[in-house]
Amino acid sequence: MDIDLDWREIAMVYLSRVEIDTKNRRKIKDLTNLGAYHNWIEQSFPDEIQKGIRKRHLWRIDTLANRKYLLVVSEDKPDLTILSRYGIANTTATKEYSPFINSIKKGQQLRFRLVANPVLRKGARKNGERERTFPHITINQQKEWLIKRSERAGFKLSENSFEIKERDFVPLYHKGNRPIRLSRVAFEGILEVIDPIALQNTLIYGLGREKAYGMGMLTVIPIN
Question: Which domains does the chain have, with CATH numbers?
Fold first, then answer.
């Protein structure tokens, strides 16, 4: 479910990053699926756990020059000691994200990256049953999925302004349930801002489904 809130209600937003220690197999042996990453991130906010508060923490895994990084967007600053648990020493950092988000202007062109879970919902809710979801399979279907959602998310795309960089299925285990595999697609390209407030909301709250499991985080940077 998308969250439609004016981002200005949020006093502060943080962007955090840590390089995952992929060469230390003993350290990362627990990171076998998306649920394990989710638990890592949730535990990095001990004050929220203590107060019984569950806030949305957007996150994703990026690979740059054969190094893996965990990125987290959150309303509260994470405990960097806990966030460093599976990371390389001295690579964990956090910064205020709000000033950059607030600087976004209508008509601005920005380079973007989005990791998302493009799916199709089928079937109406009947007798309390949930809708069924099916992953979009082809590249055209996945690109069309994003184009259809872009304007509501505050930006405009053309078919030739972005591309799919990666596509895969990743495992998710829930205790007591059969494991499932989620479709994960990485989009990159150039977007045009048409509604700064809507885009700010998207940067903070994400786009699409399975946000708790590494999907939905959109990041943007100036072209120049």
Answer: 7-99 (3.30.70.1200), 103-222 (3.30.70.1210)
